[in-house]
Every structure is written in structure tokens, then in C-alpha cells.
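Hey L., structure's done. Input below.
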Amino acid sequence: MSGFPGQPTRIKAPHGARVLGLVWPNGVEDALPHQILRGYCPCAGCQGHSGSLTFQPGGNLEIRELEGVGRYALSFSWGDGHDSGIYTFEYLWRLARLLDEHGAEGLAALGTLPPAAAPAQ
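Output:
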């Protein structure tokens, strides 16, 4: 899971879409399904304090708002009001690499992310 290229150069989250588009400084383009983003929300409300990230199915998959958190992360406000997850760019990069490896259904079926993919605590 190495090779994190840094802050994305472009972020696309069109209304009505079900994927978040990211373009990285190295030219790699990723499309992260909202199902994966919401399912692996890193907030303590979704994950508790165990240190591992488990897939949480359900929840509204519409991104209502997208905000930058400093120069290191994004925060989403979902259609049901959930808005406490902070997704670092490195975490999004790692999720995208796992998506490349497993596909969306396979990544959801993993149930728990490998420790190297989880955001730093």
C-alpha cells in the first residue's frame, strides 16, 4: 500500500452520482463508490474505538456536501445527516488501491480492512 502521491489535483462529486472521482498528482484517476466510502466511514460513531475498520452496510449514499479538512482530508455530509467521518487523502488512496484489487463487492465483503489500509489514529 505504498506510493501515496499526495493531495488530489481534482475532486469530482456530481449531484446524483454514486461515485467520488479523484485525480492524483501522478495522473492516476480513481472512482470510489459511495457504498464503499460510507461503509468504511472512519468515524468513531461507525467504527467504535477498536482501531480496525469494519464495513457498515446501509445508510444514505447521497453526498449532500463535501468539504476539505485542511490540506489533508475530506469530510462528507450524507443524505441522512451523518457527517462525522474525516477521510484523509492517504486513506482514500488506500481504499482506491483495495478497490482496484478486490472490486466494490469484494471490498465490501472483506468486512474488515487490512491494518495497512486503515487511517492513522
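The chain has one domain: 10-103. Residues 10-103 form a domain with the NE0471 N-terminal domain-like fold (CATH 3.30.2020.30).

-- N.
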